[in-house]
Amino acid sequence: MQPWPRAAVRLVLLVVLVAAGYGAVRYKRPELVDFAVPRTAAARYLAHEPLYRPEDGHYQYKYLPAFAPLMTPFVWMRKDVAEIVWFAVLVVMTWAFMRLAVATVPDRRQSTRLLMWLTLLLTAKFLVKELAFGQFNLPVALLMLGAIVAAQHGRGRAAGALIAIGTFVKPYSLVLLPWLAWTLGWRPFVLCLAVIGVGLLLPATSYGWSGNLFLLHEWYRTVSETTRPNLLAAENISFASMWAKWLAPGAAASALAVLSAIVAVAAGLAAIARRRSAKEPNYLEGAYFLVLVPLLSPQGWDYVLVIALPAYVLILDRWAEMPHSWRFTAAVALFLTSFTIFDVLRRTLYTQSMLIGVVSVGAVLMAACLLQLRWRAAA
Predict the structure, then answer these.
(1) I need a labelling partner for 279 at 20 to 30 A (CA). Which of 7, 352, 355, 364 fits?
(2) Computed from CA positions of residues 322, 324, 329, 333, in that sequence, does the dihedral angle turn out positive or negative?
(3) Tens digits of per-residue pLDDT, 164-221?
(4) Which string of DSSP letters, residue by residue, matches 252-282?
(5) Which domain holds residue 163?
(6) Which of 95, 140, 135, 141 is nearest to 119 (CA)?
(7) Is residue 255 part of a domain?
């Protein structure tokens, strides 16, 4: 009897993994709650109905209008089938994102297997939430990492297009615009803006020009109105939330959040200014700005740190080259971001930790570790 081809074995394992994972997720949840939001918006898009409705409460549609038509294929499926398909896509994306993040580390020091397992351990908290909610951070992460890989191969226009496409899944991708403009020149930057412009106009084919402008206004209103109520949410790790938790919401907290964002972006630009000291600078620079995503977004939930997976990979790979003091800093950062988990800390300690913003601190320390690697020209 001939042994099964390796591809067939992998397919069977994937099916088993998807079935087991989906069963575990649905055991305590009636649906993939975050997947249901854009799927509902897609149904409204097809019916030419308003996308942004305050009566939807916490689960209001907050994506750009152009994302709704991209979700229409899932409307044509039964809801339970659509959920299974999306869950399977997320499982595949998880593997692809981890594999690509490890494979593209420049001048890698550690083995692929070691980095894959350690990274999985450190990002499991975010990946589980991503899968359980049916979220959309993984496709954005793949597009953003794809832009970084494109830059590694000198394909600036591809990088710009990927960043633009990612914007319509979630505007997080815009965090890479300073890096794109500085390192790849004006053509990729202009192409990126052009693709974004075309995407913003896309819903006009269904809603008309004035209807599309109204949708964009409603998108801005929805995002603005839902930001303040979420500032003190335990899982919010943004600069805005961090300062609001420390000082209480107000002018001082808002000003310090803006200042923190300016300093963080300026530090990233300073790292880019030293890129000549690195053999391949794009990976570290991209990883740094990916760490900033949940910090800069006013509604940056802790699981959005899944986007920062390349930063975890790079810190683990360069661990031996970091001074002892920075290894300690990195260890604290990894613990605060990866192991602030209810099942580990239990209710009281977990609640207190989240309400004082320890994950935000961990993310800031991770960003600092990446800057230290650039200053030592280790990446």
Answers:
(1) 364
(2) positive
(3) 999 999 998 999 999 999 999 899 999 999 999 999 999 999 999 999 999 999 999 9
(4) HHHHHHHHHHHHHHHHHHHHHHTGGGSSS-H
(5) 31-53+60-375
(6) 95
(7) yes
